[in-house]
Amino acid sequence: MVVGQLKVLLSRDVVCYVPTVVECLLTNLKNMTQIGFMQGRLSPIEEGKIQAFPWSHWQSEFKIAHNLGFELMEWTIDQERLDENPLMTRSGRQQISQLCSQYGISIRSLTGDCFMQAPFWKSEGSQRQLLLEQMAEVLVAAASLEISYVVVPLVDNGSLENQQQIDNLYRGLETIRPILVDGNLQIVFESDFSSAALLKLISNLDNKYFGINYDIGNSAALGYDPAEEITTYGSYIDNVHVKDRLLGGTTVPLGKGNANLPLVFKLLKEANYQGQYILQTARAVDNDHAGILCTYRDLVRQLITNA
pLDDT tens digits for 62-75? Predict the structure, then answer.
């Protein structure tokens, strides 16, 4: 008998196996452990921003997440007060490690909104060098916590607007590549490029150290076809942000926007994506951020199961 399956005799010569309760539970457990949340989604909204580092509540999110059954968090870091972020101080990293151990939380990825807010590829001279040095410091700090993926958003203020900026990006990345090698890190780009343009961008880089962060909501807002996107560059996708957005609009509750969620999860499965799904979802209008995050987690778990 196959481990985790039940042997069923259909006839004298035909035997099949069906999942047992244990196997189903193990599948659900795997789904749970690969579904995480963006840091701050379990905290009150800061200054009206849908996403920002939760300065007053970052420690308490660990306990809340543990009590809700989450085991995975994606860290965030902004350009404002960059050096004060706990990730960037020795004592802060020690506290992060302690909280992870105490509450069973893993941090495998980091969203570097700081890189979008102050993109080195749009700067010149000494300013560009300063921003590259800051990026290097963030990468070294991330590696010290055994973070695997660093999201670099090439959207909004970080959007690549011309070939010169693309060339600046390539040149800058070459200078920090040794840190990726030494720290076993991978930069994953979130981009507003079309599928063909993004494939061209990423195929010029070593896929051991550079990949794609697929943002479901952003693609929906841009009107992109997920089948074309995932067919084109699915093998480069290493991290997924889960949210829903209106076409040309803002983030809305899952299922209320233009994202074809069942199709996207089916396509990701067909592309053999086995990475994490990070809930970067709409905030609760009634301030029940824990409740809505659990609702979204359960929905994503079902989407993964049904894909």
Answer: 999 999 999 999 99
Tell me the whole-structure pTM to 2 decimals: 0.89
Cα distance between the two ends of the chain: 27
The predicted-structure confidence for 218-270, as pLDDT tens digits, reads as follows 999 999 999 999 999 999 999 999 999 999 999 999 999 999 999 999 999 99
CATH 3.20.20.150 fits 34-306, yes or no: yes
How would you class 167 by CB atoms within 10 Å of its CB: exposed for 0-12, middle for 13-18, buried for 19 or more?
exposed
Domain boundaries, the chain: 1-30, 34-306
Of 140 and 19, more confident: 140
21: CB partners within 8 A, 6+ apart: none
Token reading at 195: 């599928």
State how far the Cα of 211 lies from the Cα of 188, in Å rounded to an integer: 4
pLDDT value of position 77:
98
Provide DSSP, 174-188.
HHHHHHHHHHT-EEE
Angle at alpha carbon of residue 150, lines to 37 and 69, rounded to 5°: 20
Convert 234-300 into a string of H (helix), E (strand) and C (coil).
Answer: HHHEEEEEECEECCCCCEECCCCCCCCHHHHHHHHHHCCCCCCEEECCCCCCCCCHHHHHHHHHHHH
Q: Parallel, antiparallel, or unpaired: how do β-strands 237-242 and 210-215 relate? A: parallel
Q: What is the DSSP letter of 17?
A: E
